[in-house]
Amino acid sequence: MKIEEYLSSLPRSIMNGDDVELSDDTLREIFRFAEMTKDDIFYHLGCGNSNSIAIASQEFRVERSIGIDNNEEKISQGKKLLAEKHITNGSLRYQDIIDADISDASVILFWFSDEKTIEKMISKFQSLRPGCKIITIWGPLTGCMPNKVDFPYILNVTPFKKAESLREQMLVIFDTDCIDFSVAWEYADRYSKAISSRNFENDRFLTILQTLVIWINAKNLGIACGEDIPEPVKSYIGILKTFFNIEVEHLLDH
After folding, report:
1. CA atoms of 94 and 50, how far apart (whole Å)
2. Whole-structure pTM over 0.70, yes or no?
3. 12-163, CATH topology level
4. Which residue from 52, 24, 56 is spatially nearest to 40, judged by alpha carbons?
5. pLDDT in tens, 228-250
6. pLDDT tens figures, 75-111
7. What is the DSSP letter of 97?
8. Range(s) within the chain of domains with CATH label 3.40.50.150
9. Residue 135 per-residue DSSP state
10. Which end of the chain is more exposed for a tag (fewer CB within 10 A), N or C?
């Protein structure tokens, strides 16, 4: 099957990130990357288990931390956690992020893959006060040049800088003149570790998929190193097809 068919066969909750909880160490890395301080008002859109709210409040001592999620059960569990930890500067809202008032935010963690959600939220972000930091994982906000990158963490700051092309975005994100297999693998591996499932086989499979996605996108945009398909890329394309019945070669522009 083509990779698009494979991805569409996965549970929707996996594809939109609902079932992926970032580890505490990853959250700390993200907060250090964003240089959060006691003066910040932090929002986590799609906060899940609320650990991010507890860490932002207790360890980074932000002025306020607010988590928003449309999963009522997770919000209920999160409120119990905050109460147990006696956190008074953190709160949770059971709400759709598109309807949420985030006008006082200075730092926002936003990790969504649904294009319609991203499009609506970008419009919302553009109305925020200058200097508001929006942290994403894996990719920048659509059509925007990142202000800071420590892959897979990407920071956009309001007002946004417009990207002239996806090619321009990728070169800034990967901080290189061209992308070869080793660069693609390194960055895919960083992503896998950041969202680690603690299952080595699953993480390895994710790294292979993301490596191929990065390299193929680079090839199609004319920023892959060299004209030929690298042998490791050929090997992994073959492995996916032979052992997993997943075909990705059609994604290449010929």
Report:
1. 12
2. yes
3. Rossmann fold (3.40.50)
4. 56
5. 999 999 999 999 999 889 999 88
6. 999 999 999 999 999 999 999 999 999 999 999 999 9
7. G
8. 12-163
9. E
10. C
